[in-house]
């Protein structure tokens, strides 16, 4: 190609667009063939294409910021262990090492080299979350990663087109849902193959012998665009702290220092607490993923993810800090704190960009992870023998923080982008009955812009058996804070409907005849609630999103029985506050 | 074939679009068409006006017409403009918010300022009653009939005009919904009630409830409109039946349309695809890519062996860059199309990565592209086409608008050329390459999602913008054969006249092949067949043969997404299991390249479609427009030349311009060349040869393919 001709710029762009379309095809294949609900229903997966140096050139936009650049690094580790020259057409590699993959054993990465006319031209990688990997579960009592399940270092799973059946058998023997897990691995292998085919077709069409020039074009432009976006912000160093619930009644203060400079943004978590003996520790790769996601949302949302755009955001944390946990720390539930990191970053960025960032939200997913049958729940073995064994994860969310000029989103995932699992699907695959799944009145933080509402779910066994829940929830002690005068959202709660509180980060059993109730947090509010137009407050009351009492107490709005604004009373209420 | 004098052979098609109502009248030997403005307040006025005009052109009386086929965007517009009925949702206690929580996700990952689509029924009009059915259809909590009765009074007091009833797992056991529906209907005479188990009997509560709400929401409006139309048509002296076009590409009766009006959305685009299907059949082509490009969007559909790809998932009102998830889901039988924000009015710019962007933002018709001189300053695709010589600024839309090429150049320069340091021509070429690449990528991703290959297909292009871009799109997709039919401007209405009467019914019932019970599946299909044929018979000619086709949504047990598998005809037996697995795995391998060993296969949904040709549909060769086209060939004549930018030559070249109306069947034109007509312009790039077909269609063949053929 005539690299200097102006036309080549148009051609490069066309090829760049094509590459993005190729990884979208790769991701689509994964969604459509996967077995686990995490991938097929919730979109918890990622897919990307790499040059022969292991630099990510394009990544599909999927539901999981946790894989944003963690998966990108996996390819580098694979190439370190198996140089390209030693790879063959039809090979594929597997890895779930939390420190070389995406942060915990449940995420399985598959890396596949793509060959064209006998030469390796690039690689494809994808990641998905398998429903079980053995061990003690996501929120089990594991004190080391050894107890968290099957650990797969970088290993060849397909050799020149032949499945490594020995390895498949080992995996199948070590997980509780072998059909789903093996099916998911097949699905990943297929999706990389689809990506590879498309890449070769594209190179044929454009007559490309290698991706080097195209890679340079993509990476140069992405770096420039990222830096341009960053340099629109005032340079400086900004600090923020945020309390998270922690474990066993010991809360934690996450500290961040964010520096905006001409070469990018540096985020350092020095001063944050050390590791704990429960799987909420976060490997650095996962810390990087959610931190850069948070920065990107605010600073450069339109620049696609690739090696160059991600390199402009650098994340550090001292070794042994909970945000840079070292092997063999347990890390299965690394998402709890990981997903809180965008809120921590927002608090820094707000100082550089007033009116540019939302209030804090629920942030960590409130996945309802249920199980039943022998060995999965406390109860009389004679009774449990008759119970249907099951494991099901249903993805759910509390409210997001209010945005400058917009209310928060109710029962919506952020920063994670996963979809929920329909109740009718959950009930089809597991012996449970969900009796309620509705908005939680007054949970959204009051503000000129209201925080998104959380929701309440009530669940019962469908076969009069005890069942278990593995909780991995935060924002039970410390609520999402409001911003710019907005109030905090409501904290979350896990309990039996009869009243007994259950722990937010543990495995609990629900006895026969009891219902489980999960009340999810609401997002923080934005701006002074007394500035919210009274008509909007009355509308919230009519919709049952805000109670009459809270409308009066927090918003200073009196709402009549037929949901109209009591104007004189409201004026009095709002005047009284203004006078204070 | 009916004799020429049979009244059934005289048929009218009416397509109500957002701006125009198109009418086509066909007799066995002629076709007449007219366009009138859509009369939004009372659409039947425009319909009547258009039909009478068409009859006048043909010098015929209303009584001569044997059938009216009608498609309309009224239901879609009511949803987009939120002008439907005051609708209530009655649902299972505890699930008041299912339709608002939707999938609990954000359709755009990095934009923290998105707003989610507002449900059609606000929380204040969503009510719950105690009742519960489980996944197997067993009653866990009996329906509280008193609560339903009391609720009826509330709904009355609220002035509700339509009711949607959606209970959990009603696809497995509809008894509670039916009973609640009866109680509400009895207490609220005149208010229509839509049951989710009838509108969309499929698992996944959000999609089912959303579809049911949409049906209820448009029902009063559509029922009223259809009734008015029926009366007006009768009063005007038409004695013939009226059939409605559905999104699935089949026709249905007024009665069924009034019951399931949601099935009428997207009927216009479906008509276009039916036309493509018809043309493909006529030309004996079995693999088609149908390509429709207008002012705002482009729509692409894959057609194999005379069957457009079907689906049951569709979103109305995608508000955010046409993105998946930003609209309201409706699960109805639809012809599956990808729609992307790429039309003549789509605006171009440069993003942070110095990439040219095109669409989905559109200049619309006001201010329109810069060259319209209506104040548009940003360049649209049409402006790029003017710069590249593809559009003659003096003869746009038959000369009704004179375009200002200088304004096009200025806009392209300012917004794309200058930021990228490209000259005007290359900037315009960049815009057209990007819009064509966007369409090509959408087609590619769509094809992979459906396990189809694009190579070797024939592209059928219609709509004002498609013939300008068809040749280049074909080059990008490795397609060597392009057809541009005559009368492309009223393509949808012409398509209506080719559609069969059809009705599709669906059941969600989970059956593992390992425990396949042939008798119960046969019984279910018998019931479905009766339901579907009863609907089809309402519109069919007496004694017409009704064809049944069956398919199933199948997957490996444990997966979450199904593939559509055609089922064999005839009753199932114990030995059918092997055949079902074979068909599933063949389909699975096509889509995903490998099968998964040792896993049971499960059917989740069962689909049955009954269809019969519409009365009087002629199976004769398609009609071409009357005139010189039909008479003999010869060398094509061109009186003018134009400077056209050719993408393969990467430069301007002087090319002949032909007027389509002067071309004769059998004539051959070498690209690069331009064929001009009032509604559009066909660009023949240097890689193609064009031939004129007796039907009036232009057929482009890649020169490489011509050479190959000659060599053989």
Automatic annotation (TrEMBL), chain A:
Record's protein name: N-methylhydantoinase B
Any Pfam family the entry gives: Hydantoinase_B
Domain Hydantoinase B/oxoprolinase as annotated: residue spans: 9-529
Entry-linked InterPro entries: Hydantoinase_B (IPR003692), Oxoprolinase-like (IPR045079)
Domain of life, source organism: Bacteria
Gene Ontology biological-process annotations: glutathione metabolic process
GO MF: 5-oxoprolinase (ATP-hydrolyzing) activity
CC per GO annotation: cytosol
Taxonomic classification: Bacteria, Pseudomonadati, Pseudomonadota, Alphaproteobacteria, Hyphomicrobiales
Automatic annotation (TrEMBL), chain B:
Matches recorded under SUPFAM superfamilies: Dehydroquinate synthase-like
GO molecular function terms attached to this record: 5-oxoprolinase (ATP-hydrolyzing) activity
Protein species of origin: Reyranella soli
Listed GO biological process terms: glutathione metabolic process
Domain Hydantoinase/oxoprolinase N-terminal residue range list: 11-185
UniProt cross-references to InterPro entries, sorted A to Z: ACX-like_C, Hydant_A_N, Hydantoinase_A, Oxoprolinase-like
Domain Acetophenone carboxylase-like C-terminal: 518-694
UniProt-recorded name of the protein: Methylhydantoinase
Top-rank taxon: Bacteria
GO CC annotations on file: cytosol
Chain spans, region Disordered: 613-638
Domain Hydantoinase A/oxoprolinase, chain residue ranges per copy: 208-502
Pfam families noted in UniProt: Hydant_A_C, Hydant_A_N, Hydantoinase_A
